[in-house]
Design goal:
With about 350 residues, this protein is of the alpha/beta class. About 30% of the residues lie in helices and about 25% in strands. Bound molecules: NADP nicotinamide-adenine-dinucleotide phosphate (NAP). NADP nicotinamide-adenine-dinucleotide phosphate binds next to loops.
Length: about 350
């Protein structure tokens, strides 16, 4: 590890690019000395993105055998891929499915005596201790060197349960059902669009899709065993994910109390807007890199209570914003195990109360 606090991001895709941008912009407040990033493919069309990140102050790392191709694009390569990992204080992997797990085997394990902590994103089940900021912070200890930042929809489901189903750290959720209505692909992606609604199968016998499975394991780190089930479908839109939820509680409540709980939770943004494009557009105008960093946007006019103990409604998922906030929180915590909360105050401005 070189001198100073160095955060290295592997991947510059949907989640990597805004994460690198935010780390650069808030570097001084977060107590970071250097931000470095790994770009995989030397593509001409990606040149403005890489230049943009370099202009924000990040240093580029590439595979040594591709250095020439990047230089031919006019990009300044500062480090080799492995060198950047080796000299980092914290590594945040933002690569596609299974690549983070592969990188752990191939590179991260090799440098675990030098680097303070490693993170990987949603798809990398098994990478390390599951984490979502505000949900299971107390379960993270210095020995958790590998952290799995849960997916965007898992963040969303987790905060719904945390807001309505958990009181004084005790579980009051008897049963939770969730329908994850997903956007086809991200606006930054060209592959994976679907021509019409496409329903998903239930791969887990007890819990349906990976969303409930992940939230079950996330809460298990707190010693809570949830009864949850999820289904998923993709819509032919590029806007935000939306989740329908049905929470059966062991206590009596009403609509006003539920709405107040959503308003009182700083990780929840509330909205009167019912169309995903309106929420997305608000994020574009008011978020950092167009991202809303809250874990969910609860649609207040849809909150409904049945039999005084069952809460039903819709919310939107700030798809990569919530994972970005958890990633930065865990990174700063590796750097400042004692004073990390104070350092993170600078991100408060990006947590919206109302959309
Ligand atoms: N997209 C979301 O809304 C979202 C939300 C929460 C969590 N996540 C999670 O974040 C992770 C990344 O998703 P994403 O949507 O950001 O993916 P993405 O847009 O496809 O970006 C993937 C990035 O990884 C790089 N890459 C590809 N193969 C690589 C390799 N072998 N080694 C190193 N880098 C490689 C790509 O570089 P090149 O383009 O240069 O080849 C690209 O920059 C996944 O775990 C996903 O589950 C995504």
């Amino acid at each position: 590890m070189a001198d100073g606090n160095i955060v290295h991001v592997v991947g510059t895709g949907t989640i990597g690019e805004p994460l690198i941008g935010l780390l650069c912009d808030a570097k001084d407040d977060l107590g970071i000395d250097e931000v470095t990033f790994y770009k995989h493919s030397p593509k001409l069309e990606d040149r403005p993105k890489v230049r943009g990140l370099i202009n924000r102050g990040a240093n580029l790392a590439v595979k040594p055998d591709r250095t020439g191709e990047f230089k031919d694009l006019g990009l300044d390569v500062v480090y080799g891929a492995e060198e950047a990992i080796k000299r980092a204080s914290v590594v945040i992997d933002c690569t596609p499915k299974n690549t983070g797990l592969m990188n752990k085997e191939k590179y991260y394990n090799k440098y675990k005596n030098k680097v303070k902590g490693f993170m990987a994103q949603g798809s990398e089940f098994g990478f390390g201790k599951m984490y979502a900021v505000g949900i299971n912070d107390e379960t993270i200890s210095p020995k958790d060197q590998f952290i799995h930042i849960v997916s965007c929809n898992t963040h969303n489901i987790a905060v719904l349960i945390n807001t309505i189903g958990i009181k004084n750290k005790k579980n009051h959720l008897k049963e939770g059902r969730f329908l994850c209505i997903r956007r086809a692909n991200d606006i930054s992606q060209v592959k994976g669009f679907v021509p019409s609604p496409e329903v998903g199968s239930h791969k887990d016998e007890k819990m349906g899709t990976h969303h409930a499975v992940d939230v079950y394991h996330l809460y298990k780190t707190l010693g809570i065993e949830l009864k949850v089930f999820s289904s998923a479908l993709k819509l032919n839109t590029q806007y935000m994910h939306c989740i329908w939820y049905d929470l059966k509680l062991d206590y009596k409540t009403d609509k006003e109390e539920v709405i107040q709980k959503f308003i009182d939770n700083p990780r929840v943004a509330v909205t009167q807007k019912k169309a995903a494009n309106m929420v997305f557009s608000f994020g574009r105008e008011h978020g950092h890199y167009g991202r809303i960093l809250n874990q969910t946007v609860a649609v207040l006019p849809t909150v409904h209570v049945v039999n005084e103990n069952e809460v039903i409604g819709f919310c939107f998922t700030p798809q990569d914003g919530n994972s970005i906030l958890s990633s930065i929180t865990a990174a700063v915590r590796f750097l400042y195990p004692e004073g990390y909360e104070e350092k993170l105050r600078c991100l408060g401005a990006f947590l919206l109360q109302e959309v």
